[in-house]
Amino acid sequence: MVFFPNDKTSRSHAMEERAAIIVTSAKSSAKAKDDVSAFLIDGPGEYELAGFIIYAIPIASLGKFSAAVKVFAENMRLLWLPTLPSKVFSEKEIDQLGEIDILLLPLNQEKGEKYPPAPAEEAVKLMNEIEPRITIPFAREEKTVKSFLDEAGVKNVQPLEKFSVKQKDLPEETQIVQLKV
Question: Tens digit of pLDDT for each residue in 71-128?
């Protein structure tokens, strides 16, 4: 599964060619449908594919894609957001998301066609509202991730090349995992 693959010069292209499922915006899905044989998720809905149960939950404050993607796999619940929301999630939206084991947390916000870094305190607040067991922040720039880690009070994190976890090994308290960019 690949979320929002970038352009064809990025390393995401290699992953995209092997992916069974690609989550992309409606804007880019027409081109993507011509380029790959994977199943495309380009908006809200419910899907069961390749051993995954996937809910693309409509949330208006998430920009063009406007859906949070919740994936059930290996008895774990993963949540991916396409961009940091432009406003705080409502109680109803938090309820729709349900329990989350792993949060893929974007540290950029959609502003027209650009994705500038979001204030770190907004990202930390969202993480605390969702209460995942593991948070994996991602951003276009390393300094944005560092700002988030500082705001979250996390010190001396060693970025990992890759990360895997089994349901039985999930921590009780929220843990932040940084991946190498």
Answer: 999 999 999 988 888 777 888 888 989 999 999 998 986 666 667 778 899 999 999 9
Strand extents, DSSP E, the chain: 2-3, 21-23, 39-41, 45-49, 52-58, 67-73, 76-80, 102-106, 134-138, 175-176
Query: Which domains are present in the chain?
Result: 1-42 (no CATH), 49-176 (3.60.15.10)
By residue count, the chain amounts to 181
**What does the pLDDT look like over 3-26, one tens digit per residue?**
655 544 444 444 545 667 777 655
> Under DSSP, is residue 85 helix (H, G, I), strand (E, B) or coil?
coil
In whole angstroms, give the CA distance from residue 149 to residue 161.
18
